[in-house]
Inverse folding.
């Protein structure tokens, strides 16, 4: 994998809470937005922002299973502070709401 992509992945995983912008990420590795998007999609078969959302939701699933944090707190911790968006996206990925996921795990 390209070192720039690895670097961006590491930086985003360090702080999932941060509201990352493609423009800032591209600038940080010296690429245009278009070039970064094409590079990431070629290497991972998923867009950079979709990759980030997947990582946020995976982290949220772990927190739901392993902590007593509220769903609102978990959404905030993973950079998805809007309850309705978090619930919608979580359900789309895992097939159940965060509450149901917690009850199952």
């Amino acid at each position: 994998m390209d070192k720039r992509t690895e670097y961006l992945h590491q930086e985003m995983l360090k702080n999932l809470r941060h509201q990352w912008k493609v423009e800032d990420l591209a600038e940080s590795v010296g690429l245009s937005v278009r070039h970064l998007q094409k590079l990431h999609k070629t290497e991972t078969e998923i867009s950079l922002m979709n990759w980030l959302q997947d990582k946020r939701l995976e982290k949220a699933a772990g927190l739901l299973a392993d902590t007593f944090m509220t769903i609102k707190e978990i959404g905030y911790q993973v950079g998805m502070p809007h309850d309705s968006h978090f619930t919608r996206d979580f359900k789309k990925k895992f097939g159940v709401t965060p509450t149901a996921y917690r009850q199952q795990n």
User: Anything to note?
Assistant: The chain has a mean pLDDT of 96. The two ends are 34 Å apart (CA to CA).
